[in-house]
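Team,

Forwarding the record for the chain on the shared tracking sheet. I've put the sequence and predicted structure together so nobody has to dig through attachments.
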Amino acid sequence: MLAIYRREMGAFFTSGVAYVFLTVFYLISGIFFFNGVLCSGTTDVSPMFSSMFYVVMFLIPILTMKLLSEEKKNKTDQGLLTAPVGLWDIVLGKYFAALTLFIIAESIVFIYAIILSAFGNVVWQTLFGNYFAMLFLGAAFIAVGLFISSLTENQMASAVASMVSLFVLYLSEMLVADFENGGTFKKILFKGVTALAFYSRYMEFTGGMFSLPSIIFFISTAFLFNFFTVKVLEKRRWS
């Protein structure tokens, strides 16, 4: 797994994906930090993290689009699949490489915190709560993107499909929001959709609420989609 991890980390930087991802992430988060925190005269970073949900939703597909689709396009996937390495090692090596880059990106918030400390007291408990909420959200989204990347050899198709999938999950939650107080069918639909809700679970943390079920949800989602990816590779190995 470590060999795959090092290979993917190197590929992120040699291909330029890392630079694009980090630049856009830092730029947009900086804008949200300036407008939502500094201009509001507060040391509470929750407004910035609330807005960053949408950024993460559209940036992570760019991070994951080439992880497996490029292997398939360049016909290097068969060499990788027949190498003396387990499928879980392949998937987790690529997964943790993407997750590492995401952690590097979101750790910019600690620089923001240092800036805020010059103006007032930073509530570190709230900051760390939001930081780990975004970390768990990113971990789940990366697993979804990696799975979709395993289904196609076109990087752009992988990115677009991942964006659409994550947006549909978000939009479905918004569309059934009014069903909570409706009839029996609407209530069942509301509960079913909200059980798979990324947005509301993430917003619990930005609102200052620690939710163990939400953490379990994000971790379970990451594991489940990595498992799906392993099954896709397993089928390809024997085809």
